[in-house]
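hey m, so remember when u said the tokens were messed up on ur end? i reran from scratch. heres the input so u can diff it against urs
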Amino acid sequence: MLSQTAVFTKLVKDYMGPPPLAAKVTDTCGTVVARMRQDAANSALVSNGGLPVGIVTEQDICRRVAFLSDAATPITEVMSAPMKAVEADSYLYHAIAEMRRHKLRHMPVIDNQQRVVGVLQIHHALAAAASQVVEQIELLTHSQTLAGMKKTKAAQVQVAIQLQHDAVPAPAIQTLITSINNDLYRRIVGLCIQQMQAEGWGQAPVEFDVIVMGSGGRGESFLFPDQDNGFVLEDYPDKLHDDVDRWFVELASRMTDALNETGFDYCKGFVMATNPLWRKSISQWCEQISAWIGKGAGMVLRLGDIFFDFIPVYGSGTLTRQLREHVTLTARKPFFLREMFKFDQEHEVALGPFNRLLRDKMEGPQQGKLNLKLTGTLPLVGAVRISALANGIAATSTLQRIDGLYAKEKLSGDQQDYLSGAFRHITNLLLRQQLRDYRNGKRVGNHVAPKDISARERDMLIDCFKAIKTYRKNLRLELTGEIF
């Protein structure tokens, strides 16, 4: 049995069985039943010219064939049709919800060419999920309309509250929140493309990936992240630019509007595919990154800080992998990393002299509280990102990067333990506060009042800040040669 959150990251192809017995529309019941008995099969897929049109299961045999139909009856008269199928790369929890709602025991699994590659059986799928997870699946799966996806987005918080109540670690809850968000991205993009095709825009003129950046790319989203997205397009001749760009401008506009309606606020810094800066061909992206790394100053560093955690959420991922390879190879320049660290120095942990926690001094409702994002997670996330880039580590999540640095012997076992523990403790405090604010009808933010932290949690937080501060000090010395 998987953990309470792992099931939401698994794909159908991870749990499907081999393809079902194949039958033709010209076969008779007698022929199909005999073959099912001979092969000990519990289902048979009926195809017409290679395309699946129906399915025959043990229940169909019992209810529609045994003692009722002549053996010469065409199999098409007893099969279940139209047939529901699921794509191999779909999330398992979506398939579980679909099968439960339609009372299906078997569901053919198809690839992106509509070819049957396996069959998913409900008892195998449910065996992967704890009973309480099935309830969460029901909350998180709705119709694939914009209204349905909006309900899914809203239900995230309820599921996060349940998981926190069950003592699921905060990073695992973050991974689940991010996974659901990225799945919503994929489905919204698909819906927008369907609408465009129905309105005469046609297919995408070139292959492309949709990427998300920031916390979405790291798998570390808290509640209600805004949009940080872009397009990576296949290279195309310059003479086609106007037509190609017109299509992707339209898609970007529809996508960002739909995301906003679903619950992903527009990015205030315009880090969205509607901005040409974040909508480029693969060659243009590579040239842009090389220019950023070569310049390494001012706004360039801020853009790089946003960009380097990208992952694909729509498309084959081939273009994104090319882009990641380029980043991994080119971003290791000491000059650039040194400038990135200097830029990142504004993100320091909230720990003053004599281990005193530094509170927000700005007048307003957050005065006197701890900003555990700006002065907690970001100092660690930023420093670990720079170390990962310096050492050619392609992973994007903070915990995976820490593990990668340990594997390359850039961190000791104690450092790995302290930094991973710091990330888990700070994110737990921050996520707990966000869920508390949500339940109390307050604005969800990144501040935690010291009174809401126990004495033990406070001591642990100070140790976390000390570990992060030491790590950043060592990184500064490594990159700049500066001790203070």
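this time it looks ok to me. The first strand starts at residue 21 and ends at 24. if urs says something different then somethings off w ur setup not the seq
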